[in-house]
Design a protein that fits this description.
Shape: globular
Number of strands: 0
Helix content: 55-70%
Distance between the termini: 10 Å
Radius of gyration: 19 Å
Largest sheet: none
Number of helices: 7
Structural class: mainly alpha
Strand content: under 5%
């Protein structure tokens, strides 16, 4: 089982890097075709997507996790926390995308189809399966939920502050938001609509994070010490 998850983690890390870089190149080429010169805005916008940030974390988790298993070690506590965060964020990314955003053109310019599926479907599912079944998982404490929710809180604050200040180069709008449900100008209710979605997704993150911790507190199905090196 250990060898299987080493292979899965290495393959998932490579696929994640390829998907992120592939989408970045596609977006860069789209901007170039439009004659947009502000490359710094392109990169800041690209890495302002929660999906991209979550997948960067997932790539790190898969890569580090492969090394941990190669060394036949249990998760160090810092890695267990990072892994729990990535699982939570990627699960929420999977749910939000498939319920709210599938089929909607996002403001990165254009979407690379295979990359889109890796980032929003394949990687989240692999990370969840890894959390349930990979050996070496460490037991977390309920207080660790505070660590899990910290980044989404910072990301929402950053997004809502930056949104009215960032110019949308592709749509020629004076504001830029990574997702339409965070743009108050797209709803008659304005910021009340944004607040509704923020609360809804916050509840999903808290609930998912609690579920991730609960799984960690169960006995491992394949403890690392029981697996041959």
């Amino acid at each position: 089982m250990r060898v299987l998850f080493i292979v899965i983690r290495i393959a998932a890390a490579i696929a994640g890097v390829a998907a992120i870089v592939g989408q970045l190149i596609t977006t860069y080429n789209f901007w170039t075709a439009l004659g947009i010169q502000n490359r710094s805005a392109l990169f800041v916008n690209f890495f302002s997507f929660f999906t991209i940030d979550s997948n960067v974390a997932a790539v790190v988790v898969f890569a580090v996790g492969a090394v941990v298993l190669i060394r036949n070690q249990s998760d160090p506590r810092w890695f267990a926390l990072l892994r729990a965060c990535a699982v939570t964020y990627m699960t929420v990314t999977f749910v939000v995308y498939n319920l709210l955003l599938r089929g909607i053109e996002l403001p990165q310019g254009t979407t690379l189809a295979w990359s889109n599926e890796v980032l929003h479907v394949v990687a989240p599912l692999l990370l969840v399966l890894d959390w349930f079944f990979a050996p070496g998982r460490q037991r977390l404490e309920w207080k660790d939920l505070r660590v899990i929710v910290a980044f989404p809180i910072v990301w929402v604050i950053y997004t809502l502050i930056r949104g009215p200040l960032a110019y949308n180069e592709t749509a020629h709008k004076p504001t830029w938001y990574p997702y339409p449900f965070l743009d108050p100008s797209l709803s008659p209710e304005g910021y009340w609509s944004v607040l509704f979605y923020v609360i809804l997704i916050a509840g999903a993150i808290i609930g998912t994070g609690a579920g991730v911790i609960w799984v960690s507190r169960r006995r491992e199905r394949w403890p690392l010490r029981a697996v041959a090196a």
